[in-house]
Design goal:
The protein is built from four helices and no strands. It is mainly α and 84 residues long. The radius of gyration is 12 Å and the shape is globular. The N and C termini lie close together (9 Å).
Length: 84
């Protein structure tokens, strides 16, 4: 499925776990959290799942400089997600 495809991309490592104590990002989320929410049936709709995945990308672009490798990795993963 799409989550596993995102997780298995070589550029996904910065998105697997996050620093929840960070003050810049108001609503932290990572691929592990999304995976756990899926396994625990916490998503009531596909829209909720999509909202969390897109939040990863928004947080990435907010926190990282547009010239950084992590910012670019976010763009790559978002492109993969948008194709599904």
């Amino acid at each position: 499925d799409i989550l596993h495809e995102l997780e298995n991309k070589s550029c996904a490592y910065p998105f697997k776990y996050i620093n929840k104590a960070d003050k810049i990002i108001k609503h932290p989320i990572d691929l592990l959290t999304i995976n756990l929410k899926l396994k625990n049936n916490q998503y009531k709709s596909l829209k909720e799942f999509e909202k969390d995945v897109r939040l990863i990308f928004r947080n990435c672009y907010t926190y990282n400089n547009a010239e950084s490798e992590i910012y670019h990795s976010g763009e790559v993963l978002e492109s993969v997600f948008n194709k599904k």
